[in-house]
Amino acid sequence: MALDAAWAVRWARWSAEVVVAEREHLVELDRRIGDGDHGENLARGLSAVQVKLGQVPVPDQVGEVLRLVATTMMSTVGGAAGPLYGTAFLRAAKISGVSSLSPAAVVAMLEAALEGVVSRGRASPGEKTMVDAWAAAVGAAQEAEGAGADPVAVLAAAADAAEAGARSTVPMVATKGRASYLGERSAGHMDPGAASTAMLLRAAHAAAESS
Amino acid sequence: MSVALVVVSHSALVAQGCAEMARQMAPDVLVVPVGGLDGGLGTSVAAVADAVDGCLGDGLDVVVLTDLGSAVMAAETAVELLEADAAARVRTPDGPLVEGAVAAAVQAQLGSGPDEVARAATGAVPALGPVLPDGPGAGQGRGRSDVGVGTDAVTVTVTLRSPHGLHARPAALLARAVGATGVPVTVDGVNAASVLALMKLGARDGQELTVAGEGPGAGEAVAAVAELVRAGLADA
After folding, report:
1. Is residue B16 part of a domain?
2. pLDDT-based confidence at residue B30 (cuts at 50, 70, 90)
3. Mean pLDDT throughout A97-119?
4. Dihedral, CA atoms, A75, A77, A83, A86, nearest 10 degrees?
5. pTM here?
6. DhaL domain spans which residues (chain A) (predicted)?
7. Could you say which of B41, B42, B77 has the minimum Cβ distance to residue A87?
8. Got the DSSP string for B96-142?
9. How large is the ipTM?
10. Cβ of B77 and A74 within 8 Å?
11. What letter would DSSP give residue A84?
12. What Å distances lie between residue B60 and A68, B20, B87, B98, B177, CA to CA?
């Protein structure tokens, strides 16, 4: 099915649903190596996105939906996830001013999001942050697109890789973000930002498979 | 005033308290606190953006000061939301929040531009530690080798004539005068180009101050600074 504005709206709604459902899980992850507010903040922000989406007609372009997600999260998430996801979706929105995404456009959208997260958080892969999930997703999406996958399959590859990227943060010692305050003690726990990134990208894929 | 300050913290109380202190030092400077979310801790990018927009709309350039982690990210994100020409009028310097806000406000009160105000905030860091006599000009345009070791050293003792002592505004006046000479000058051993370093001296009216400088131009610079102190740091 087409990755159009209606898909983007479903993506945002499903993201909200999955994060609200997984709120306690994210809170628990963040409680171990952070300040415990990631699940709460993200659930609040994405719920606000849901409300916002219900108040406006479905836009024509994918980018307009992503922009609404970005600006709403920026003003409602509160913690570091607000600027990080806000910037990711804002950068993604800027290059998604089309009625539906081609495979190359899906890759470009994910690349823009990764670039936004990296420039905002100044983290690199391997530092136990959401970058580990985003970077894995971008790499897999590029590969899938290069192999001729359709847009939905590109998203599937990205979602699988994001989950693997999130799992890869478990043994890592954090060197960026709040968890870095714990040093060696941060090892053995999944990074909550990487975990939520995997949830959002899984929602993107699931929203594309339904019609 | 051409520059407004936006003070951003996760805590509304921190932002408000910091703005209160900055305003006291610089009553004519617009200082806008932004902090908290839904009555708790947090930072709204939109709230930062609104505050910055409001200042820009008033024709003021903006220096955004932040405390920790996500407040910094929120401020940077807010700037990213601006159009390029508006973003060019905003600075987001690093620096300790309270000391940086005070130093920046004093600098803004002097009518400085955004770059100078931002530098004052950033420069508030070294002013808190042991202060070395390397004022403005050191390391830029003039090599260290130009400063003779043990040569051209000038020391003058003057009596401070400033009814309320060397508080923010006379300190700012003095720091600016020292900055304008481009020569490293110290007052009682601290960098006289630093507003905060001068304020920390806590010098009172009638107190003897030792003004010292070294290297080319030190004689004139020290004499000018001493004269300013002696004259009572007028208008301050």
Report:
1. yes
2. very high
3. 97
4. -70
5. 0.73
6. 6-206
7. B77
8. -HHHHHHHHHHHHHTT--HHHHHHHHHTTTGGGSPPPS--TTBTTTB
9. 0.75
10. yes
11. H
12. 29, 19, 12, 21, 25
Of B74, B90, B124, the residue at which a domain comes to its end is B124
Residues B119, B149, single domain; the answer is: no
Chain A residues touching residue B76 (CB < 8 angstroms): 83, 120
Length in residues, chain A: 211
B117 and B154 inside one domain: no
- Between CA A58 and CA A73 the distance in angstroms is 18
Q: Rounded to 10 degrees, what is the CA torsion of A95, A168, A26, A74?
A: -20
Give whole-number Cα distances, A23 to A37, A56, A125, A196, in Å: 10, 26, 25, 10
Q: Are residues B27 and B116 in the same domain?
A: yes
In this structure, the answer to whether residues B220 and B158 fall within a common structural domain is: yes
B45 with A82: Cβ contact below 8 A: yes
Given B37, B41, B45, which is nearest A83 (Cβ)?
Answer: B45
Rg (CA), chain A: 16
The torsion angles phi and psi of A32, rounded to 5 degrees, stand at: -70, -40
Type of residue at A111: E
* pLDDT tens digits, B43-90: 889 999 999 999 999 999 999 999 887 888 999 999 988 989 999 999
Q: What's at B4, amino acid-wise? A: A
CATH of the domain at A180: 1.25.40.340
